[in-house]
Amino acid sequence: MLKIQIKYYTPTVAEKFFIEKVVELLDPQTIDSYRLRMHNPLTILKELRQVISDLNDNKLKNVSYAESLMQEALFLIQTENELNFKSLSKSYYIKLLSNKNGGKRNLNHVLYSTNLIINDNENYAGIIFSKISSEIIRLNLLNPPIIEDFKILNGIIGYYFIELINRGFSKQYLFYFFKSIFFSPSHGNFSDRLDIISSLNTKVKEKFNVIIGISIPSEYSSKITILNGEFSLLKKAERKDIVRKTNQKIKDYFEKYKTKCLFYQIEVSAFDFYSSIKFARQRLQILFDVIHMGHSDVKISVIEECAQVGENNPRRANVLKIQYYLDGYYKSEQKLYDDFLNKIKIINEKKIDKGTLSRINSGLRYLRLGFDSHELENKILNYWIGLEYLFSPNDTDSYTVGRIREYFKKCHAIVYFKRNLKYLHDSIIIHHLGYKVPQISYNLNYLTIESNYDAIISEYITYPLLAYRANSFKEQLCSDKKTKDTIEKHQKNLDWNLNRIYRIRNEIVHNASIQTNSETITSHLRYYLVFILNGLMDFIINEPIDIDGDSELTIDDYFIMQEILIENIANDVNFQKFSYLLKMHNPVEYLS
Known about the structure:
Elements: H1 13-26, H2 41-56, H3 64-78, H4 90-98, H5 103-120, H6 124-142, H7 151-167, H8 171-182, H9 190-198, E1 206-215, E2 231-233, H10 236-245, H11 248-257, E3 262-270, H12 273-294, E4 301-310, E5 318-321, H13 334-349, H14 354-372, H15 376-391, H16 400-430, H17 450-457, H18 464-477, H19 480-511, H20 519-542, H21 555-571, H22 577-582
Antiparallel strand pairs: 1-3, 1-4, 2-3, 4-5
């Protein structure tokens, strides 16, 4: 959680909470627990509609894809109050989603009803934005509000930005646009700045000319014709004309690469620079598929940067890397690398089942292959294959995907709580509030003391989001049921997402689907693979228990151990779950 400093105007507590929350949701370096979610109540319905339609068209065969989405949609629908239900009642739709025995007839009723709800909410972004504005006004009138009053605002802020991304905005653009509005000396007071954000609700796509450098060996440059009519070769005079209309960045771009490539231009419609790259890249991929058929032996490559010239304001033309932007970041430093090498050495000296060692090596290999892949679908496939290697059963009767869904959620859930508490601890340090809790320590034991939360919560006027987060953990500290519910909810979310990822994997494999809007899914999958690799390795090094008694450490020892630990939390009522979870070992996070 970044420490937010606002210099040019004085926001109220509710207004500052809004700013802090948006920055946390959109910042790619926020841990995944607090980054922007994949779905709001409307976008989950759009995915459900698509999946049922694909089942009806026999593009998908497994009805469990729809059933899983219905459960996920049911959870979101039951906890929201913003969707319009004009054509049918909310209670009727909940009943449809809850029906597990209706077969194809019920699925089609879900499809038709979902269509009606989607049509009722064409202006969902505007609806949510109005609710956010009204909620901020309501909180301002409380003067001051108490920390519990922020619950509604905390929930719906994410819904709004999810909706904008679903419309076609890039998360990167929203992040930089929001910061430019709320952290600059211009744009007036908070209300004025909020009005600027509201302009996104009605913004229309503009035309972008995306300029891509393609490196072709000189002896082939006159032979390889770009047949795709969307791409046009830029001649020297045309490049000069573009420079005249734009800025120094574009001039430097042409100068930098003019001896290394030919420049091609494609026109796309998009909301922002980053989105324009995504659409251009999709068309470029199809172009390269065609070229490969006639010149597979020729090394043709794309320059890593491309230029984007917007029709509305060409003077603001930009140059960006032609890549996908995934959330999360690898921690890269020599000490981590040395520690990892030491782990490998220790593992090789342990009495470990050869199959388990082979799976670790395969997981690491496919993690690298996914990282090195340029296209999203290749990243997804490599990360998924890495997971499959790690979770593949010793006996052929077991189902690998079932094992992934069953065991991964338990392995992650057992450390999820401590991971989030560590994030709270880091946020307390970042906000320089360690002096408020004299018992503060890296082992986090001070977070089992209720008064320490009260000390942080008392700072809510200055740090409202941090105080709100502390209050949430205080409630769980005081209630075993809330702690248990948090862990169970997290497992459900993981199970739904893993089923979604497996469906997308199958669409790529069986339908040659190009997944152009799956950066979030790819980020999740990459993190899952990194997590399970480090969790397994840390288990072998720090907690080597041959739990199945076969005289060797195996990956199943790790899985079974985590399963027992998480089920113990669910069933034992005689100990404090919060303190128990705080004692769990959290693997080193090489990727947030």
